[in-house]
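2.7 Reproducibility. Because tokenized structures are sensitive to small changes in the input, we list the exact sequence used for YbbR-like domain-containing protein, including any N-terminal residues retained from the expression construct. No trimming or masking was applied before prediction.
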Amino acid sequence: MFKKGWKGLNKRKVKVFLLFLLCSFLAWFLSNLSEPYESRANFVLNYKNLPDTLLLGNNAVNRIEAKIKTSGFKFLYYNFTNKRIDIDLSGIINRNGSYILTEDAVKKQMERQLSQSISLIDLDRRELKVDLYQVASKEIPIKANLDIQFRQNYILEGEPLINPTTVLVKGPKNEIDALTEIHTSEIELTDVSSDFSKDVLLVFPKTLDNSIFSINRASVSGKVAKFSEEVFDVPVQVVNFPEGYDVKTFPNAIKILCKATIGQLKVISANDFLVVADYKQRNNANDNVIFLEITKKPEKVHGVRLLENKINFVLERK
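Resulting structure tokens (single pass, no recycling of outputs):
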């Protein structure tokens, strides 16, 4: 019976009726959404500008509920998204060991970030208690962990450069007091013959559960230069010999092998070295041999070595 009645209807008229019904519903729905409403909405809290001596604890409140007045469109938006609110903690109050932001302080910060079409009526709490704890801080030097294999006759000219040179660590005093340096992850380079630069991660101790570091990466670079070798004849200076005697050494000059960059070797001379034979440092009082020591050498050379480490001597009365 129903099927016969449905077939008897004009299908075109039914479609037009349903279309008008849908349009009427949408018009009613949109009209209602444009009206102002009061309801509650949740906001995600993003803490910022912590004082230098404080860190955010693991139990910090990360959401707050507020009663607001706005259009239905806005409420529909808040039902599908989490609105983030920045909470500035630079003016936090320490009240008997608890860190507090008053309701007025929180509302003022929220109102500055909400659009003008939204009225903030009240919050779900009279004050915002923030989980913070006292920390110490100090600058820790960064050390490069280098494993470099140079091509033959190439060296690292000077120390590797690290940028930045330090990392700021903040945490409980008993955690960071023993911390003296932070290493980079290992840098492995082979057949190196030119300058290098690497951006690497820092390696932090796993035991520092409550500490944070200002950075987690650093840049390590080095200047690579070709080096050569040159032999210098350097006079031997004898010290601490007995009064009333002259000392003659055999030989009276010793050869020193110096490894340095080609540019350095051009300006180095025998006068840049001092080789000393200390009479008092003889192993045997009856021995006529004195061991040698280099007490002066040019700075930043790759290596300096005596080709002979001892000389013979004789004492002659004056």
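The chain is about 20% helix and 50% strand.
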